[in-house]
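[step 3/7] fold_predict: job queued, chain A
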Amino acid sequence: QVQLVESGGGLVQPGESMRLTCAVSGGTLDSYAIGWFRQAPGMEREGVSCSSSRDGSTSYTDSVNVRFTISRDNAKNTVYLQMNSLKPEDTAVYYCNAKKSGTDSWGQGTQVTVSS
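[step 4/7] structure written:
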């Protein structure tokens, strides 16, 4: 399994932008499917976005489509989540996930708070 470390969370006002980073170690990123998940207080963890290892295709949950962009830099073994036009309902702990051949790795999460 790879090790994942998220960073870049914090407090922002509604309408602002933030970029989350997920540093991957212990494996080569390009062989992993990568996803960003989030969990708000009292809610179940939900998938936000994912990036395929096979063709780089991406997908997004409806609530963040157009506002969020997932990307990966395989040379740096790093995954990003660019979040624009943030809303209070985006407040959650955001987790990075990597999957390959039955392995399933998670980071420790980073808190994102959107509030005025």
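[step 5/7] annotate
The first strand starts at residue 3 and ends at 7.
DSSP finds no helices and eleven strands in the chain.
exit 0
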